[in-house]
Amino acid sequence: MKNDPVRTAIFPVAGLGTRFLPATKATPKELLPVIDTPLIQYAIDEARAAGIERMVFVSHPSKASIERHVRHDADLSRMLRSKGKNGVARTLEAACLNEGEHEVVFVMQDEPLGLGHAVNCAAPHALPGAVAVILPDDLILGGRGCLAEMVDAYEHGKAGHLVAAMEVAPDAVSSYGILAPRSIEGPMIFASGMVEKPAIDAAPSRQAVVGRYVLDGSIFADLDALTPGAGGEYQLTDAIAAGIGRVGLAGYAFSGKRFDCGSKTGMLAAILHVARSNPDYADVLEEFCSLQAATAPAAA
Hints:
InterPro entries: GalU_uridylyltTrfase_bac/arc, NTP_transferase_dom, Nucleotide-diphossugar_trans. Pfam families: NTP_transferase (PF00483). Its EC number is 2.7.7.9. One of its GO terms (molecular function) is UTP:glucose-1-phosphate uridylyltransferase activity. By secondary structure, the protein is α/β, with parallel strands linked by helices. It has a single domain (8-295), classed as Alpha-Beta Complex (Spore Coat Polysaccharide Biosynthesis Protein SpsA, Chain A), CATH 3.90.550. 33% of the residues lie in helices and 24% in strands. A hairpin with a 2-residue loop joins strand 2 and strand 3. The longest helix is centred in the last third of the chain and has 14 residues, at 282-295. The termini are far apart.
């Protein structure tokens, strides 16, 4: 069986980023840079690499700067070129979404009613078939791109819902949705269900779901049927669980390295990882490491 192509990607970007205040008081967390590239740019590039046609951004009225980043700014390009900054202009033009190649839609989530609600806000704009969901603060670097790998696996796979999965340490299990595996075929982890944030002694595995999803189009009907949970929020994992018996569920063990850039430690780790891979920053890192070694206490 071959599933239909995945043509739509949904970017839930309405969250307020409270863990990064005061930095996110005026700057959306999705625009926080890993050195010089905002998180949202990595997510956009990942979707482009996966062949996505329509990108739906579920935003908030207070975060208009995300749309400014995503769309082409002709006035800024002209200004840069008039000052001889042609290289910078080309970089910005390549980063933005060309609406001749990709459809761009912005919809608003006015209230923080959960990830499931955010995804459902995009329902009227989704093209027929399965949809991808990308959480930009889950940064996944390396390989072909996590979503490209997942889309390829989905289109040739046996599960209607496919989620990115990675093995986490025992003490991290209670922070994630955890798959209940029933069989493994290469990178595909076919599952009978998910347990949300279990204690380690109750967890069915250590395979954690992280921020990439390819979901059967029936996800929107299951989201419509949800009742709100704690805090009045609608959880995407509840809607996925509701469809497992009909369409199936699998995790995908992606090849890249994931950074939780919704946390300060994860963002710092991502910055250091990117810096280490670029020779432009070698001197800075070497100087820092040398300073650390010089000031470290001597071993007893």
